[in-house]
Amino acid sequence: MNTTNFKTILLDADGTLFDFNACERNALTKVFERYGYPLNDEIRKTYESINKDLWKQYELGRIDRNTVIYSRFGDLFKKIGIEDDGIAFEDSYQKLLGMQHELYEDAIEAVEYLYKKYNLYIVTNGVTATQLQRLKDSTLDRYMKEIFVSEATGFQKPMKEFFDYCFKKIGSMDRSRTMIIGDSLTSDIKGGNNAGIKTCWYNPDHQRKDMDVMIDYEIHQLRDLYQIL
């Protein structure tokens, strides 16, 4: 039985509720097929490396969101010898990604459990229209008091300003009774530390902690939350 006294839960979306690897894989396959460009495991890995590095730079505040989304395919195409700046390609990709909402097996069950006990909010870095569409199509939006997307807030996780914005919108709340649940040490856990709230690292692949952050709880499947909350 848990002994916590939380009231507010902040939930990351991609990699925590959504199986983002599956969503991304499906969207990439469809957009490459649409444009008639080649796609194999090597090209996927090259894209994933470029994309991961750009998002990390964004989380560190070194580049803005538009640089992330309108550079990644252009950078990829330069590496694989395709003459395309990637801008229209990115727009098509975003529309296709917005149609992908594959959830982890226990995501709905866990959210329904939390919904009965806590005030739930989504906190996610990404493109507003894409994220809102996916949350609606997956039915996750019906459980949330509000959805905070970095593009709309003007800040991104792990910035303290992102969480200050969220808390101002939420209104009356107690940070000591608030926890963030997410899979990313760099954005979710670091963000929780910056915001002065408790953290729960969703770590299904049993990765090693590779940065200096404070983790209050660690889970390997969403059902593990029942022992905490």
Tell me about this structure.
With 229 residues, this protein is α/β, with parallel strands linked by helices. It contains 9 helices and 6 strands. Strands 3-2-1-4-5-6 form a 6-stranded parallel beta sheet, sandwiched between helices. Helix 8 packs across helix 9.
What radius of gyration results from the CA coordinates? 18 Å
According to CATH, what is the class of the largest domain? Alpha Beta
* Overall SS class: alpha/beta
CA(first)-CA(last) distance: 8 Å
CATH superfamily of the largest domain: HAD superfamily/HAD-like
Strand elements, count = 6
Our count of domains comes out at 2
Poorly predicted segments: none
Query: How does the overall form come out from the CA principal axes?
Result: globular
